[in-house]
Each structure stands twice: as C-alpha cells, then as structure tokens.
Amino acid sequence: MPAGFSSRACWDSPQSLPASAYGRSTAGPSVSQRGAASLANRRVRATGVYDRTHELVLRTQALRELPGVVLVTPLRLSGAGDTAVLVERGFVPSPDAVTLPPEAAQLDELGSQRVHGVALALTAEADSGAPLVHHEMMTWRGLDLAALRARLPYPILDVVIRQTPDSSLPQMPRRREPTELNEGPHLSYAIQWFAFAAIAVVFAVVFAVVFWRGGKRG
C-alpha cells in the first residue's frame, strides 16, 4: 500500500468471492421498499438515475497497491420522491490519490440504472469526513452522514451501496468487491443455535466420561 495510506481510508481490502455471490437471483431487497438501516451489510438493489452534479470523490484510496480515488454518486431513486441513495460506483486510478483524472468526466452512466450491491451503513465521522478542496474540487476522506445530508440538496438514505462487479458494467470506474456479506438475522440465529448445540454435545461427552470413570473406580 502506498506510503501514508491507512487501511481505514481504503475501507476494505478487496477479496475475491464466487461469481454466484453476485447473481441477480440473490440481489436482495430494494432499498426503496424497506428501512435502509436494517439492510446494512446485506445484498440490495436500487433503481434510479445518477446525479453526477453532486458526485463525491473519496481520496487516498488504493486498489491492489494502486493509488486512486473512489467515485460515490447519488442515485435519485425511482418512485421515492426526491430521496436518493449514495452508490459507490468504483475506483479510478490517480497518481496522487487526490486529483480526479480528466478522463473521469466521461464516466457517465446515463438513463435509468439498476444497481446491485452491498449496503454499508453511513455513520458519523469524528472529522465530519474531512472535506478538502483540492484544485477547486471537493474531496472527502470518509462519508459522514450528517455532513452529507447538510451538503446535498435532497434527502439521502443512511446507507451507501457498494456496487458489485458485473460483466455488463463499464470497465471504469472499477467496481470493488465486498469483503463480507451478511445474509441477515436468520443466519446469525442459525449460527447461535449450532453453537449452543455443539456446547451441549461437548458437555454431554464430558459428563459421560466422568460418570464412566467414576463407575469404573467404584
């Protein structure tokens, strides 16, 4: 990773996941259909139109040791009034990891877009995301929910969708893979019950051994 980069600034280090993890059949619920906060760390989908006028640039990012920036674009949700959801469209190489390359102006995705990805919770940053003006362009160290709601001219949901790779999408910006997917509360409950069952089996075995040894001594 380039000098001066922090693991936090890069959000997550990308890891490869099976292609089936991104299948349309497992795209998850629409963020416009239920509370966004309950969808954090789960696969979701959203439909709307990108607003690049209010696009956000995350600085000091890295992808496989390559410095760059990440584009986060508001998606004006279809059928949701003025509400938008932020979409992390992906990574764009930049030598200083701050300046947005001129070619980025051509990275439009026009018309209605159907986005598939993983919802990540937007929280409060101690430095409000550290907005910084560089060459007359605002860049951010992180995404702060309160600061972004104050800056954007329309309501935004409290999650950002990290758009997952798909062969039908343009090569740039480079979509980043999520490091962890959560299938929701049912999976966590199942894991808990399996853990309880395993503990019960262990105690049963220990009790049986102790009982058998005690009976043998008697």
Give your account of this protein's structure.
By secondary structure, the chain is of the alpha+beta class. It folds into two domains: 19-182, no CATH class; 184-218. Helix content is 18%, strand content 28%. The protein is built from two helices and eight strands. The chain has helices spanning 145-151, 185-217; strands at 43-50, 56-63, 66-77, 84-93, 112-121, 132-134, 137-139, 156-163. The strands form two sheets. The chain has a five-stranded mixed barrel. Strands 6-7 form a two-stranded antiparallel sheet. The longest helix has 33 residues, at 185-217. The termini are far apart. The model is unreliable at 1-25 and 180-191 (pLDDT under 50).
Gyration radius, in Å: 22 Å
One letter per element, helices H and strands E, the order comes to EEEEEEEHEH
Taking all residues together, what is the mean pLDDT?
75
End-to-end gap: 66 Å
Shape: globular
Number of strands: 8
Number of domains: 2
Low-pLDDT regions: 1-25, 180-191
Q: Main sheet?
A: 5 strands, mixed, barrel
What percentage of amino acids are in beta strands? 25-35%
Please count the helical segments.
2
SSE diagram, text form:
Blueprint (H helix, E strand, L loop, with lengths): L42 E8 L5 E8 L2 E12 L6 E10 L18 E10 L10 E3 L2 E3 L5 H7 L4 E8 L21 H33 L1
Parallel strand pairs: 4-8
Antiparallel strand pairs: 1-3, 1-5, 2-3, 3-4, 5-8, 6-7
Give a short synopsis of this structure:
By secondary structure, the protein is of the alpha+beta class.
